[in-house]
Amino acid sequence: MTILEVEKLTKTFGGLTANKEISLQAEANKITAVIGPNGAGKTTFFNMITGVYKPTSGSIKLRGESIGGLKPHAVAKKGISRTFQNIRLFGPITVLENVLVGMHTHLKAGIFGTIFHLPGVDKEERIAEREAYRLLEYVGLEEHYNDEAASLSYGSQRRLEIARALATKPSVLLLDEPAAGMNPKETADLTGLIEKIKQEMDMTIILIEHDMKLVMEISDYIYVLDHGELIAEGLPAQVRHDKKVIEAYLGKGAAEEQEAEG
Amino acid sequence: MKKILDQIRGNKWLQLGLLVGYIALTSLSLILAQRSVAAFLLLLLSFLLLYYTKLPNWSKWAIGLAIMFFILPFSAMQGPAYQEYMDVATLVGIYVSMALGLNIVVGMAGLLDLGFVAFFAVGAYTYGIFATAQANNFMPFGTYPLSGNSFWIFIILGCFVAALFGVLLGIPVLRVKGDYLAIVTLGFGEIIRIVFNNMDQPVNITNGALGLSSIAPPKIFGIELLYSNQIYFVVLFILLFIIFAVRSLEHSKLGRSWKAVRENEIAAQAMGIPLVKTKLMAFAIGASFSGMMGVVFAAKQAFIDPTSFTLLQSINILVMVLLGGMGSVPGVILGAAVVTILNAQVLNELTMWFNSLSTAGIITLPDAMSPVKMQRFFFGALLILFALYRSKGLIPAKNVVYDKRKFLSEKGTKKRLQSVAAPKEDEHDHTGS
Ligand SMILES: Nc1ncnc2c1ncn2[C@@H]1O[C@H](COP(=O)(O)OP(=O)(O)O)[C@@H](O)[C@H]1O
Ligand SMILES: [Mg+2]
């Protein structure tokens, strides 16, 4: 069943067409990968889905409901959450508080309830803290719950971004290069974590990633972008041998070479 | 020496004993030497010592309240400088409240506001206009001045009117960011002042540059609160409420969303935080503290005019926040107290001392370096020193430390937060589609 359906999404920046009529369907409880060389337009694509950029044209539908052009916070409320390629944590506050921020839309406390500690508000906080802590356990950061987010290692910061995104209780999770900057061991752990989220949380995941081993291992379906255009799509086994894809990644010469070999 | 210090650091009973001794000593010296500003300041210093003791929180509050409500007024009461001391203490309370308000805007939400005094002015004029005959000029009903009994309602009114102005300022201003925001708020502050300065025609609402005089003093149970020692308690109650409110907000859903917006707007929005609403809340709540104290200020001074609400005042409040430590509640309280006391007492004392030295012929000062002129110079020099050596403020902001035993064990937390996000798919077992 299709949860997220994107049709002919286009984004231009002045003269530059960063995304040209990209269509994509994300199936429920599957991992859909979006790959392509640097500058292909992958992050721009995520930014349009999450409302950071307004699409120049095209439509985005979540369960049939149009969400194109909504404000980012409204998109989050609809159940789409994300991580960022260039890590965007709330650096000086604690790891636990970062996850608590993710619970924002699920907390009911109003201004007067907060100031006067009305019954329910403090309790709601305790419950939220506990759930935030459980999420930290889930991604393996519970030991650091009182540390400053900025003090974490690079790999841990990426995991914290995932925990924070999960705190919004999304139905679709967008991961923008979650393995960037990780060593092979960290990448392997991350691969396991993403699989686990998909299975245990019934999550629909869209993944941007450069690490081909990771992508081929866990993706159910792959879309390939180059220069803002969709050049291929298919199952991992199909995409791996697609001539256009090899060309985009390795250049024309390499593609011909491989063809000669295979 | 180091050994003794270590011992003090470790033993809270010893700390308590020393603190009580210190408070007793300083209050006694204030009782005996009434004219001694030093004794007064040393007594105030006990709040800082109290903050740094390792006593449990409730006992810190108990001791602090005892000093504020009994020890300080009682020790100061014994001599001729009583009202003077209480006046300074009242001013400290007013400025601490305003600085705590600005701290929400600048420190927590990260929005640089250079026109903050405007909200103080709004509060002051809200009471000033109706507690003088001024309102007769334009109000179609009622007779004015309202009696001092209305003061108590006006504290709440001032709070809401200022919050409303905070939102009104926010709506156009939040389109701009960073440096531009500072400039636009600066303009707003000046506009408010100029509007008050010129709203004496065609209909005389504010009485223009002449200001409003004979503002009714607060009245309770038939008693008019005319003196600083009385107003002091009014300010104290409001201040305690504000501190309580700020403390509650700081680590709440709203407080966290302010910090999130301050640190990264895009990530904050991606977490479902509405940018404009969150910023407007910061403006409104910050402004409301100022508005309440504006009402008190008008009642206390019995006279207000636009010159009380200049850009310099806004900068002064900002300095309190920066000096104390952006985003740090104890820091901002200390910063506001230090700046207010410096301006109201220490620098004046210093000036008087230099004056007496030069009239006694002990030192001769050229005219350009007359003590009155030196006052601002000292203040500036102090600020530069602080900026260089304590750039994060006197008491830098600290993160709340959670105790996992508390939230993991608490009864009734088995419940999960309701998910308001889209419902779970129940067809996920289907193979493909
Ligand atoms: N806000 C923007 N303004 C102008 N150009 C942009 C903006 N965001 C992205 N681009 C451009 O769009 C193209 C695609 O960028 P991006 O989506 O970040 O690629 P990828 O994530 O695939 O590496 C790049 O040429 C980039 O410079
Ligand atoms: Mg990218």
Automatic annotation (TrEMBL), chain A:
The keyword Cytoplasm does not apply. It comes from the Bacteria. PROSITE patterns: ABC_TRANSPORTER_2 (PS50893). The keyword Methyltransferase does not apply. Keywords: ATP-binding, Nucleotide-binding, Transport. Residues 4-252 form the ABC transporter domain. One of its GO terms (molecular function) is ATP binding. This is ABC transporter ATP-binding protein. It comes from Terribacillus saccharophilus.
From TrEMBL, chain B:
Residues 423-433 have a biased composition (Basic and acidic residues). Signal peptide: none annotated. InterPro entries: ABC_transp_permease (IPR001851), LivM-like (IPR043428). It comes from the Bacteria. It is a multi-pass membrane protein. The chain crosses the membrane at residues 12-31, 37-54, 61-82, 88-106, 111-130, 150-171, 178-196, 231-249, 280-303, 315-339, 346-365, 377-395. It is found in: Cell membrane. Its main location: membrane. Keywords: Cell membrane, Membrane, Transmembrane, Transmembrane helix. Residues 413-433 are annotated as: Disordered. This is Branched-chain amino acid ABC transporter permease.
